[in-house]
């Protein structure tokens, strides 16, 4: 048990998703590791490699010294290049090698988390290039719970084995993705000052969020309804998470989205919906 109770929900969510991934990958035939996921350019093997790599870095293992091939089309900038190293270095690993390393990493990391003595606000290393070099421990654990749940869903969709859409990790993902809505609405989609946009999400995780844009064009988000919003979007939780994580474009799931109000603004929001790097 981690020392600070406020951190335990993130550890529990992370553990649940990691164990779910372990159950999904253990029986895989060799060819199933190569199934494409909705994560651009990544197979099931690549997604699992990504998780292993980040958790190993959090354990203090050195990053691999590895030169990437020049023809990886989805590597377009230094951030994606940074993330691809841990993936590409494992691209020729067999299924048993992948499963073994994942299980060993899970055991090591679980032990590390059980013995964690630092507090929520203590600064720790960040392992993703779009975050500052150090972040509060609470944020690090929250983002790891979020990341592994998102990738659990990537693996599930690739294998045709849905589940855990209402797990503890799903609720962490709800909060992380909701926090990115003001930027989507106010900055990317250019919602006008003094406007409000409502997101009504149904399905396994149900919630409503309203983004309010003030007179200076700054956006905030809360759970209160808005009377007469400028635009309203209704969609199911899985579609919302796929859009917000950049797994699918709005036109591919248009039949699962209902919009009201300013249709141009709603379209601009859906076009800019992804909040993950």
Description of the molecule:
- 45% of the residues lie in helices and 13% in strands.
- It has nine helices and seven strands; from the N terminus they run ααααββαααββββαβα.
- The protein is of the alpha+beta class.
- The strands form two sheets. Strands 5-4-3-6-7 form a five-stranded mixed β-sheet.
- This is Maleylpyruvate isomerase family mycothiol-dependent enzyme.
- GO terms for molecular function: isomerase activity.
- It comes from Streptomyces iconiensis.
- Keywords: Isomerase.
What is the CATH architecture term of the largest domain? Up-down Bundle
Q: Could you describe the largest sheet, including whether it forms a barrel?
A: 5 strands, mixed
Number of domains: 2
**Percent in strands:** 5-15%
Q: Whole-number average pLDDT?
A: 95
Q: Helices and strands, in N-to-C order?
A: HHHHEEHHHEEEEHEH
Main sheet: which strands, in order across? Answer: 5-4-3-6-7
Organism: Streptomyces iconiensis
Protein name: Maleylpyruvate isomerase family mycothiol-dependent enzyme
InterPro entries: DinB/YfiT-like (IPR034660), Maleyloyr_isom (IPR017517), MDMPI_C-term_domain (IPR010872), MDMPI_metal-binding (IPR024344)
GO molecular function, one term: isomerase activity
């Amino acid at each position: 048990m981690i020392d600070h109770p406020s951190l335990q929900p993130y550890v529990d969510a992370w553990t649940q998703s990691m164990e779910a991934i372990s159950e999904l990958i253990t029986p895989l035939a060799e060819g199933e590791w190569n199934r494409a996921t909705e994560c651009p350019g990544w197979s099931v093997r690549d997604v699992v490699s990504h998780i292993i790599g980040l958790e190993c870095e959090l354990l203090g293992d050195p990053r691999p010294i590895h030169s990437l091939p020049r023809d990886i089309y989805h590597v377009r900038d230094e951030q994606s290049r940074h993330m691809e190293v841990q993936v590409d270095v494992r691209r020729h690993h067999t299924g048993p090698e992948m499963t073994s390393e994942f299980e060993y990493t899970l055991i090591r990391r679980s032990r590390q988390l059980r013995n964690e003595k630092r507090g929520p606000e203590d600064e720790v290393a960040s392992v993703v290039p779009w975050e500052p070099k150090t972040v509060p421990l609470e944020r690090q654990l929250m983002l790891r719970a979020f990341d592994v749940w998102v990738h659990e869903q990537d693996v599930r969709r690739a294998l045709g084995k849905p589940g855990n859409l209402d797990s503890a990790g799903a609720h962490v993902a709800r909060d992380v993705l909701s926090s990115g809505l003001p930027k989507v609405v106010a900055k990317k989609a250019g919602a006008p000052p003094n406007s409000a946009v409502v997101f009504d999400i149904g399905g396994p995780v149900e919630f409503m969020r309203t983004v309010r844009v003030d007179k200076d064009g700054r956006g905030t988000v809360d759970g209160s309804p808005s009377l007469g919003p400028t635009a309203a979007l209704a969609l199911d939780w899985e579609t919302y998470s796929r859009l917000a994580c950049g797994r699918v474009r709005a036109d591919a799931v248009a039949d699962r989205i209902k919009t009201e109000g300013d249709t141009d603004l709603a379209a601009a929001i859906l076009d800019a919906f992804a909040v993950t790097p």
